Prior knowledge:
Elements: E1 4-5, E2 21-22, H1 29-48, H2 52-63, H3 67-95, H4 97-113, H5 121-131, H6 137-148, H7 160-174, H8 179-186, H9 188-204, H10 225-233, H11 252-265, H12 281-288, H13 291-321, H14 327-339, H15 341-389, H16 394-418, H17 427-451, H18 454-471
Parallel strand pairs: 1-2
Amino acid sequence: MSLFCFKSPSIDPASGKALQLPLFNPFDRHGRVFFFAWLSFLTSFLAWYAMPPLLHATIRDDMNLSEAETQNSNIIALVAGLLCRLVTGPLCDKYGPRKVLVGLMWAAAIPTGLAGTASHAASLFVIRFFIGVSGAVFVAVTAWTQQWYDTNVVGTATVTFFVMPAVFNSLWKQQGLTEAIAWRVSFVVPALLLVFMGLGVLLLNDDTPNGKWKQDPTPSRASSTTQVDVATSAGGNYTEKARKGSTGMIDFSERRSSQAETATSSPARSISGDADTTPSFRDNLSALCCPQTAMLSAFYFVTFGGCLVMNSILVTVYSEKFPDWSYTLAGSWAAMFGLLNFVTRPLGGILADIAYRRLGLERGVRVKKYWCSLLCVLEGVMCLVVGLLNPSSLSTLIGGTAGIAIFSEMGNGATYALLPHANPHIRGMMGGAVGGAGNLGGIVFCVIARFCPYAQTIWIVGVVSIVVGVLAVLVHPIPKGQRSMYSL
């Protein structure tokens, strides 16, 4: 069975989850969830990253900001994203990720639309803090798609660095607005997109394949009696009949994956599913505090954190290296870093899933972890090359920057391909903790960039990435109490 399809996907009859990813099929209910999930992710990041491409020239000159104030505004935005991601995880587990997703997008639309009212550094800091709410959309999107898909669905990335300058240039040059007014009006675009996207998610989609969130009997929320009976009657594995999708094809690795998820998804319930005991928040928090959470958080700390600091400094780096470049040209080359996300981030997760399917449950999970470690090391090597050489050659600098983007963004996708295997009963909390670690990495690296030369900042990111990649090899990919279901 292939990973992708263009029609209705094969469905697991026990959980209602899709066994394939329906590309460009918003008419199928599973395809519609995927469509709105990646589009919501893109729209939210459009709002989150709307400032940086305009901040380092247009907005800074309009408000007479210093370089320190510019960097501080980036840090404040990341702090807001960190706090919101930590809170979003538990909210998703309690109220359902779809409703949380809608709330986040509508909450982010308000400060995004008001961004044009900022007139000095203090008001800019306040606006950027509340726009940071949109950074938590990723956690809700991930938790929502995991309710609908048997395999991890990696998010797509943003084209913000191309979109916002394009909107600005259109208003400034083609509509005749002054530069100071054009950048303020341009923020209305992402604000409206957030509102409309929230309406689409709310009105055209469901919480889970089986209905509303509180009524959902899928393995992530409750132990299904039917599913457990099938598993036990097959001696711990699903029967082939139970795991056949609409195509009649059988996927062995996915069969074992669902079996492991079922066994670990609701540990406080009896195997028959008759008990009503639900793990308390303290139990969930205890499960969250494990080496696997630390490992995944460290992966995302260096990969996503590295992406954040590079996005924050690249326009300035290019402008300083090549003073004859216009702002638009420097912004366009900086945009290439984000644009690579369209290929690299999904590719990191897809390659991890392909290896998992081919190697089976036991070896597949380990390979996913080693894959994450390798990408961290390779990201670190590229950061050391760029940071220590500090090249003035255009081809060398662009090539090195592209190498950093490829390995760090693939690491983002690979991390979230590994994440569902650890503590699947607290997906929201796991996603929030790991996603928050990425923001924390961005904050730490941006603070370093605030006080150190940019070249030094880049090689420091490289050293941390290599250390994380090497040390992660020592950590088991599955929490101790869940390893028996993986035969690990």
